[in-house]
Amino acid sequence: MLYKDRSKPVPERVEHLLGLMTLEEKAGQLVQPFGWQTYEHNDGEIQLTDSFKEQVQSGGIGSLYGVLRADPWTGVTLETGLSPREGAEAVNEIQRYAIENSRLGIPILIGEECSHGHMAIGATVFPVPLSLGSTWNVELYREMCRAVARETRSQGGAVTYSPVLDVVRDPRWGRTEECFGEDAYLIGEMAVASVEGLQGERLDGEDSVAATLKHFVGYGSSEGGRNAGPVHMGRRELLEVDLLPFRKAVEAGAASIMPAYNEIDGVPCTTNEELLDGVLRGEWGFDGMVITDCGAIDMLASGHDVAEDGRDAAIQAIRAGIDMEMSGVMFGKHLVEAVRSGQLEEDVLNQAVRRVLTLKFRLGLFEQPYADPVRAEQVIGSTEHVELARQLASEGIVLLKNEGGALPLSADAGKIAVIGPNADVGYNQLGDYTSPQPRSKVTTVLGGIRSKLAGTPERVLYAPGCRINGDSREGFDVALSCAEQADTVVMVVGGSSARDFGEGTIDLRTGASKVTGNAQSDMDCGEGIDRMNLSLSGVQLELIQEIHKLGKPLVVVYINGRPIAEPWIDENADAILEAWYPGQEGGHAVADILFGDVNPSGRLTISVPKHVGQIPVYYHGKRSRGKRYLEDDSQPRYPFGYGLSYTAFNYSNLTVESDTIDTDGTTKVSVEVTNVGDRAGSEVVQMYISDIASTVTRPAKELKGFRKVFLQPGETQTVEFQVGSEQLQYIGRDYKPVVEPGEFRVHVGKNVNDTLSANLFVREG
């Protein structure tokens, strides 16, 4: 068979195979059922289900979603789930049956969730993307993506549904944690690193998986911050902001893309031909696979109401450029009959099948469809990956306040009371899209502090005080008693994206876990969990206020998936750490920073408002947006790019090498950064551009470059940036990129509101 000959070019193999396929086999390649429903796991044995076998024999299955996924939605638990070795063996059983019991022996594409680690039992849980963005460390993130690809492919997963490239405009949105932040340029840099890290030098490598860019596009700008709500956005903003990270990732070679659930100006992204065919495939030349989000085709007929029924929805989607349906229900049910009845042209079906088969050939699945169970056991959750998770967590933590040098804590500074609902609940620091974890695998903040003071355990006191949600104050007395005995209080509060793993709840008087018949969920963030405000849930603020009355030094550690707006804490806490959801090593990372073993270097990638009423408060708003409200100005509490250190950095000698360039010219911008403190540390040097006068309105400042540099005390480093058309252009009146002659201002500094400035003039060239 020619299509099995690896020496032949991929397009030739694809066309030969396509010519052999029946209509049912073609449609089968475009469906993606839920993978965890294809097998039963009992006493260590994997048994494939009859329904899976029947589907393979009746036309085939193109892909499976989440064979290795474990969480409450799948119903896969630590007890019923697959170990790293068993997961690889299960994938092999699935592939073997599909290849040996289908007419053409086409392997199945195994797709998995991997936004901050492979979502399988035993895999390394890295910090959530909001934390990863806060590292401003593109190289380190690329290294993480290589680790995720290594773990996923070792079990047979060949495609991942990441990275998430949504630009956040309203942090009330529950999926804020899944995003890198509010700035398209920074997201674009992370997007390129993700594609390079996940896909490696070649897709058929043993450590490579296909990246799927999502959610295309505008998903982070939904009405009211409500998940999948309508998006009201002009074409220029769409091209200039939200599409930018996707374009850069496509240019980097991304193999797959996923349209968003939302509509833009009345057109659902799932059927937006202008975006999928015009921009993505036409202007950008994307030749990869397009897969829907789960249930997105159903929404066309039941939600968006732009289709009469399921068949109409399926036809609209595939004509618009959809190649595969996650869940597979609509395509599997309607495509064959739609072609036979003349409602859908077979050429349209063939084009989608070509793209799916092309990806399978590029991944090398026809040559090597099977995983290596021994390698999976060695690679997944390796010591190297765990160490990487700790470093990423450390670099993503942002020091928001440090009054009077409250931090770092001294290793012999008396007793420390660790109080709060997030102090010792591991799931609360992992974020959404996380598999169940044994308690021993996750180090909480309490665990991290106890590890630091292992020689004097009596110095660490603990009380949960309250839950994330609910109004119970039954734990207040114990928490206050605990705080009274301490010299310093570390309050660990925030939110939770932990879904109900059946772990019960926590005893507020003893801090012990307990299982009850009515366990209370603390989830207040994550997919589908959107909020009306940004304050702490439940009675957490009240607990902090009561403990503050004791007059003890108060350090607040936030563990959460979206910014928190609590003016009282900003004004009264001695120190504040924003840790986001820091992953399985988060407790160690927080303790490293609390005790000064690591100098904080995280910087905000999302503005933190003073009050929810300021939203939208993202930094790149237009100059015309207005200055203030009656009650207060429009500035955030903590601006984009902000973050403190245990040392101090001074900026000087900002220089523009050629302060006049042509519209197609370039120049070099340099600045000297000096560590003027007494500790070594890393600084994130940020460059912003202002277009002083433009044909269409522009943001006051836009991030166009950044460097993370490590400096010893007294050390000075010259940091350089290139400025050219990429940094100076915008989408003009004709919706094309343009660099206009005129005056620009270059800003370089610590954050968007703390910079040195220099002028740059652009002349017609």
TrEMBL record:
Family: Belongs to the glycosyl hydrolase 3 family.
Pfam families tied to this protein: Fn3-like, Glyco_hydro_3, Glyco_hydro_3_C
Record keywords: Hydrolase
Lineage: superkingdom: Bacteria
Gene3D superfamilies documented for this protein: Glycoside hydrolase family 3 C-terminal domain, Glycoside hydrolase, family 3, N-terminal domain, Immunoglobulins
Gene Ontology MF: a single term: beta-glucosidase activity
Source lineage: Bacteria, Bacillati, Bacillota, Bacilli, Bacillales
Protein name: Glycoside hydrolase family 3 C-terminal domain-containing protein
Chain ranges passing through the membrane: none
Domain Fibronectin type III-like residue range list: 683-752
Species whose genome carries this gene: Paenibacillus mellifer
Matches recorded under InterPro entries: Cellulose_Degrad_GH3, Fn3-like, GH, Glyco_hydro_3_C, Glyco_hydro_3_C_sf, Glyco_hydro_3_N, Glyco_hydro_3_N_sf, Ig-like_fold
BP terms from Gene Ontology: glucan catabolic process
